[in-house]
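Complex 209.
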Amino acid sequence: MIYKQKIEKMISRLRQMGITDERVLKAMRAAPRHRFVPAGLEFQSYDEKALPIGFGQTISHPYTVAVMTQALNIKNGDRILEIGTGSGYQTAVLCELGAQVFTIEKIRAIGQSADKILRELEYQFVSRIGDGTLGWQNYAPYDSIIVTAGAPVIPKNLLQQLKQSGKLLIPLGDADEQILTILIKDNKSYNIIEIEELKFVPLIGKNGW
Ligand code: SAH
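Predicted structure with S-adenosyl-L-homocysteine bound:
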């Protein structure tokens, strides 16, 4: 496979950057990131950068995907709601970990393109086009909800759709800076853990920008 060396380079770089969960590294070795970028950008796909996927959106940096996936500590069969399907790459990594993935994308053309690639690669998932800030009540409650775009506030609907002790992973902040944050549901309240500062595209919608 022509990408083998690039994949191994990405994996060792992720280790150097502090990713320690071997299951996450294995999932990222298995999910073919080069399939989730536009034609012509395949050879850059394993570099430590975000790449444009059209409509002003991007496929997240490998490190961003790794740190977010590691933070979720996914167990086989976990129900995960993903807000912002984007390229579909994060969806693929979650599927590689044995999660049942439900994913929502706001921009139709982006969602359709991700669906097509994920199906070609034979991943099992459920998707829809819509405003993910409202969540997806039909399949609730979830073990975790992952928001892959930066939000100004915590969307309350998402907290309601979590299981007890479920996790909401969300970048919170203003347009320039966001802190990747985990909220762990504890009855009607939640505990907050701040992970680190990272840069995301904006979450657009009713409970977004
Ligand atoms: N993990 C993805 C990240 C894509 S960028 C990847 O690596 O490819 C974030 C995506 O969130 C964009 O595609 C954007 O269109 C989408 N988005 C923004 N606001 C949204 C909302 N309210 N509901 C669903 N998707 C949204």
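The longest helix spans residues 4-16.
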